[in-house]
Amino acid sequence: MSTVVLYGSVSVDGFIADENDQPGPLFEWLSSGDVPLDDSGMVNVSQTSYDYIRPYWDQIGVTIVGRHVFDITDGWNGVPPSGVDHVVVVTHRPEPDDWKMKAPFHFADGVDTAVATAQELAGDRVVEVAAGDVGGQVFAAGLVDEVRMDVVPVVLGAGKRFFGSVSAPHLLENPEAVVQGDRVLHLRYRVRR
């Protein structure tokens, strides 16, 4: 079965975006290097970040996002981000009326269904869950195996939390990876069971 990973860039005070859904400087590390991370020509990182991130990206088969992210990105115009094979959108609303692109986008009415669908689609590849409200719900439901954070040296002060509305304590194992990139610290933890 696939590994379920909660992932995102985050400020040192735990936010993935400001109150207006703007990441501000959280993604600057993705454009400040000289090594292309993908074929877009827009994502260039340090060699250290490339060596850490690229193998992970190559393992991702499915990304789970919430409807809010889907809407503000306009469904990435039907092309899943970062070369991912499938996107599962958690929503209690029907897909948009004008949404013509069926696959590789799938709509689920809850996190349990979303994770089950994603694991079926991913096979032995990684299921990535975008940090934020839906990611926090998946985490709180005990469905996350690993947490990956790209911690950026900025304090946002308020905004959208990495773990969404998670309010109960959850233990993680000691970090399995601590990698210092340029203006980013990559961290990887297993979730304690």
Automatic annotation (TrEMBL):
The opening ranks of the lineage are: Bacteria, Bacillati, Actinomycetota, Actinomycetes, Mycobacteriales
The protein's name is Bacterial bifunctional deaminase-reductase C-terminal domain-containing protein
Native organism is: Gordonia insulae
List residues of the Bacterial bifunctional deaminase-reductase C-terminal domain: 4-169
Q: Which domain of life is it from?
A: Bacteria
| Any one Gene Ontology BP term | riboflavin biosynthetic process
Question: Which Gene3D superfamilies does this UniProt record tie to the protein?
Answer: Dihydrofolate Reductase, subunit A (3.40.430.10)
InterPro entries named among the record's database cross-references: DHFR-like_dom_sf, RibDG_C
- Show the GO MF annotations: 5-amino-6-(5-phosphoribosylamino)uracil reductase activity
